[in-house]
Amino acid sequence: MGNAEGPTGAEAAGTGATGSRGGESSAAGIAHRVPDLGAMELLLAVARLGSLGRAARELGITQPAASSRIRSMERQLGVALVDRSPRGSRLTDAGALVTDWARRVVEAAEAFDAGAQALRDRRDSRLRVAASMTIAEYLLPGWLIALRAQRPDTAVSLLAGNSAAVAERLLAGEADLGFVEGLSVPAGLDSTVIAHDRLIVVTSPGHRWARRRAPLSAAELAATPLILREEGSGTRQVLDTALGGLARPLIELSSTTAVKASAVSGAGPAVLSELALGEELSAHRLVNIPLADVQLARSLRAVWPTGHRPTGPARDLLSLTRGV
């Protein structure tokens, strides 16, 4: 008995002597010394059912796998836990004590899981999307209808603005996922390209450009006062960069719909996304003016704060955009 108790006392003394110095290594190694939850659940099932075979069936594993898991647990702890016989399986005294500890660990794990699920449910109950105007008006409605079919209980709010405003919303934590149209990704955001778009020059049928035979040059477009989106919009950024500068705007408006309506009224030429002009071009309310020497192409991107890949409803919405 003295020899048996000696090492235990020495170990206890050693643990106390190391104090905080040994605490870090103890915490780091606990996963290697404590059985995993699956093994604990198996031991609890054996205690409840009195049979290793019945416990294995309840947990959906084979009896050999269950036996191997119990033996591994016994080796890990250094004590026998289960006495096996033709009449069934019975816990040893040590096994009964370990089972009591295991029950508390499993109950704590179940409480942890329930809390984590509550956090996921709270996250999944809403989705805040920020999108630049063209995407908000012409692409997002279809994506959100498809998302509702997948997640009918998720409430979605949409904040529409220019690309600069979308970046501000995301960085301030006011949106879970954003969509922008500019040439570059705003600082502090990660992105993925979801579609490609083209800007085209349009006028009303009565404008003099509608009767011209030669394509419009980039220089002539740059020198002409246009109906434009406001500073900070992706459309304005692409146009300004491609032309190397713009004349003073004829009119400056904050939405694609407003720019389009002004062009239809004959106020002047405008440059807009091809996505936004299908109906007006088909009905001949606007005329596409060919460009000679410049391509106004751009990428549409989904964006999110750097290092925070979308999860839950935001991840599902992102996956729906891949079909564009």
Automatic annotation (TrEMBL):
Composition bias type Low complexity, residue spans: 1-15
Ranges for region Disordered: 1-27
Family, per entry: Belongs to the LysR transcriptional regulatory family.
Pfam families attached to this UniProt entry: HTH_1, LysR_substrate
Start and end residues of each HTH lysR-type domain: 35-92
Key words of the record: DNA-binding, Transcription, Transcription regulation
Annotated InterPro entries: LysR_HTH_N, LysR_subst-bd, WH-like_DNA-bd_sf, WH_DNA-bd_sf
Domain of life: Bacteria
Name of the protein this chain belongs to: LysR family transcriptional regulator
PROSITE patterns: HTH_LYSR (PS50931)
